[in-house]
Amino acid sequence: MTRFPRPHHHDVTIAAVGLLGGVTGWALGLRTQGGLIGGPAVLVPLTVMAGLELLRRTAPQFALVVGTFAVVADQFTTGSLVTVLMFTDLVYAAVLYGTPAAARRIPITTGLISVAVALGFLAWLHKPEALLIGVITAVISFAPATTGALVRNHRDAAEAATLRAEQTALLAELDRTQAVVAERARMARELHDLVAGHLSAIAIHSTAALSLDDPATTRTALGVIRTNSVDGLAEMRRLIGLLRDSGATAEPAAAPTLAALDALIAQARTNGAAGGLDFALHDRRPEGAALPAPIELAAYRIVQESLTNAVKHASPGTVTASLAHTGRALLVEVSSPYGNGGARPEPRAPGSGAGLVGMRERAVLLGGSFSSGPEPARDGTKIWRVRAELPLRESESQA
Length: 399
Known about the structure:
It contains 11 helices and 5 strands. The protein is of the alpha+beta class. The protein folds into 2 domains: about 160 residues, no CATH class; about 140 residues, Heat Shock Protein 90 (2-Layer Sandwich). The longest helix has about 80 residues. The protein is rod-shaped.
């Protein structure tokens, strides 16, 4: 047994008003025709049609099929205008609330039926007035069907626009979230690269000053500590200033370039002297070779972080940084002595691995590659090699 869902309260109102209006019209003697069957028989199609109004949303196609038989039966009675009006509402509801296939099929079917009725009665009666029957058929079937199709199309268009707006808002929120995450990662890389080297040098030399009872060593360590403290504080103030000043008129701060590598090597040489480290730079780039600013910044930061790691972890020896321009990419390599026996003169500074992650991210963001790890050297010792390849666009490499 088929069980229909509970009718909508608006449908209950329509059914009640229709039934009451139809009964009132019958009681007052209102009729649309002089049918074959008189008396209260007109109330039967009226009652059936009112009951079908309860199903106009929940079972619109079933209501339309049964309603069609009811409106045909009404033509054999004295007729009720309310019955016909409720039938037009069922046609409208079948298109508006029915399946998409029914919404496409019903207007076409009712249009063809209207034309067929007009032509049929014209052939039967041989009078032009017979066309009015086709017009009336179109008014009670084709007109509400097309109206329902128009309303449904507008409703579907509004729902699609709402869905697109929601999807656009969701995509915008995802983009904003991704932008925030990317900016936080960029800030983390910059903060680490700006401060990690200075703090590592401070940690190493302060430990040396505390553990070695040598006034000269202590004085040298305190000098290095003060230099790195001042430089680190200046870098922190610059970074905080950039974060605070987000106005449109703020001038961009100058990003470090590869021209400052000599100063970076000199600072690393000072920081690593107590650990028996020396530093060298081999710049094999051709004269006048221009590089994009993002490439220079990434290369500078990779060298900077590699030198910081060497100060913290390398065995005594020479740390070598080299640059090479292949025309299609900038190659950055930093090699440092690694695990070649003997303890370092000073304790190592702790590390979290964030530096390697930051260097890899910088290379990947530019479409390049990054690798790091221990390798055997030519003299039988071991070295820790950091290698990054930063690709250049053809137009930039030939600039």
